[in-house]
Amino acid sequence: MSRSHENRYMTQEHHTQEGLFLVTTNTKDRVPWLTLKGVPERLIRQLAFTRNLYGGRLYAFCVLPDHMHIILNPGERGLSRFMQSFKTNVMRDIRHFLSSDERALVAGNGLDSAKPTWQHSFHVRGLSGDRLIANALLYVQHNALRHRLADEPNVWPWTSLNYPYLLDPMEW
What's the whole-model pTM score? Predict the structure, then answer.
């Protein structure tokens, strides 16, 4: 797939581009490649880099095997461009990082090719009001518990609870 085609492939337009959002993005066909060794660190690093590049604000995240949740304000360029940049750049990094054996493992779990990839779109919920924001923060921070991947929220290694230095202060 050409780079220009890949960028169009991952662009998703929403009516509201600025504000506070809960974003959920899934792997294609829900193939569990997000927690392969070394991948979560790349996701988190690219998320922080994209936040800095776009002048956004990052409040919470949780990386799970086949999807991730993010609470953020994407900055002036808007949500669609933020997510397009994040997903495109992190995929480039991950595809170069994964060994051929790991790509084959991903392919064996349902991908058509030996390349891990994202679902075409992402789910967005605008957040306003203290109660809705607080509930969204708890949802993201406790998501590994909900999926029975950990017994305590901070035991799951790929939650923002373990990366407080990457988070922006929440303005209530």
Answer: 0.83
